[in-house]
Amino acid sequence: SQQGEEDPQALSIQEGENATMNCSYKTSINNLQWYRQNSGRGLVHLILIRSNEREKHSGRLRVTLDTSKKSSSLLITASRAADTASYFCATDLYGNNRLAFGKGNQVVVIP
Amino acid sequence: DAGVIQSPRHEVTEMGQEVTLRCKPISGHDYLFWYRQTMMRGLELLIYFNNNVPIDDSGMPEDRFSAKMPNASFSTLKIQPSEPRDSAVYFCASSLVGGHYEQYFGPGTRLTVT
Lengths: 111, 114
Prior knowledge:
Chain A is an all-beta fold.
């Protein structure tokens, strides 16, 4: 079954604003990851949060994980035009060696 | 390291023709994944290998699709015969530790079947 399903949003924001996107999943996980995909390119790993972590930071990125609600959020602070991309969450099926990706959130940052 | 390398980057072919997509994973990575991305279905895992052995091919759509990994540095995904509904972007990814950790994606092959 499909895991890692983002709220189906297309987000358009001004440069300097924050962007938040959400992801929900259905079953137990080892970890949850966020990836970015620029137009016409492959996915790039951004951050991984383990099931026993609640929050993680990496530069301007902040990820939260709520295992009781089976949801995660990705916050990009002080957005830049270069942050324009699609963002995917991905979950591993517990005990499995594969990731299930959501359909992605498109974010457009207007300079 | 050059990252995951895929070829060709673009492929246009006619229905019924054989298509072969190629991938070179990052050196030392033991896991290799083939994905397909379309607007309608998103990113789907087709098959993955561990140490050159196919582990899970449950995502391969049908017998027209086959994948091989003859050695640690090369994999192919073949479609024979191709159909218009196979049009998509095909990604190869590799991982050092396992599929549930960070995966490194290639640039993809955009396949158009007319």
